[in-house]
Amino acid sequence: MSECDNRLMNSTTTPSSFAPLKNDTFLRACLRQATDYTPIWMMRQAGRFLPEYRATRAKAGSFMGLATNTDFATEVTLQPLERFPIDAAILFSDILTVPDAMGLGLSFALGEGPKFAFPVRDEAAVAKLQVPDMAKLRYVFDAVTSIRKALNGKVPLIGFSGSPWTLACYMVEGAGSDDYRLVKTMMYSRPDLMHKMLQLNADAVALYLNTQIEAGAQAVMIFDSWGGVLADGAFQEFSLAYTRRVLAQLHKEYNGARIPSIVFTKGGGLWLEEMAQLDCNVLGVDWTVNLAKARAQVGGSKALQGNLDPNVLFAQPAQIEAEVIKTLNAFGTPHRGAGTGPTHIFNLGHGISQHTAPEHVAALVQAVHQYSRQMRVAG
Fold first, then answer.
1. What residue ranges define each of the domains in the chain, with the CATH number in brackets?
2. Of the listed 32, 57, 148, 295, which one is catalytic?
3. Which of 97, 129, 273, 364 is deepest in the core (most CB within 10 A)?
């Protein structure tokens, strides 16, 4: 981003630009401070399980038409908050905006996943890569500012990016993958090329997240969606090291406010003790992780986020409530009182399914808020 663009961005996001925050429960939990109840939000909460989202997407004409239009992106980000008393909003966007801005030609077909027209599979393609000009992603930052203003202080806004490794998976494969054959072939046969790509990705992600913070994001999350496909040893070298590089560059405070950071590695439960050394505030865990064990491993330094199996939401409300209680009990009573201590942010272990009934989500949110309040009284 040019100096001129930076000044323009910052001139619209002074502290007085936004309403005071009315519900800071999520941010307090991120910072391991006591809360009256366990906050909840859901990965992919602005999405296809909501009929109003599908209607807005139809108006937009395409996924990218939705994501690149400030008004539409604002509308769909706020839709779940109008239905459910959730404790945070997350920017509606896609993890692949950064490689798209690198010129790889991102597209989405209805009912299909993302595809790149120009995948990165050889030395020449890697050599062409550059940290993109953030002006190419202005639509994202405009959406962040618009959403933050539209929230009017209701709840905090989370910005996000894919991790350097996860972005590299899509960049090399050219789409989603079942076996990661192409990206792992490059990783094992030309680790020099993979490291070059990951270093560039890390610097691009850090700049992208910092610019989201400057535009109004109050917390940021790194989605290491495919870190768990790596072997032990390879995860540390090709994923964790570059997530660490991103975190080292992030704003820890902006405009006088602390900016929590969250790292979620799907399939990363094996490496929680190593991830506890990351310079972030929160570790997200998938549904395969035992929260009691995770708390024992990392609760002294990190808040935990997670980790209900998204498929629980296909059960009836009574069963959903029972599973919520199990999850909350697994973590145990969070920190209470002054100072900091172990805290929990309720979430799913991965993104919510498009086939989920909205009334089941309502039951989930109610159960989390109600039972977590009771725990604090009883505990």
1. 3-311+332-352 (3.20.20.210)
2. 57
3. 364
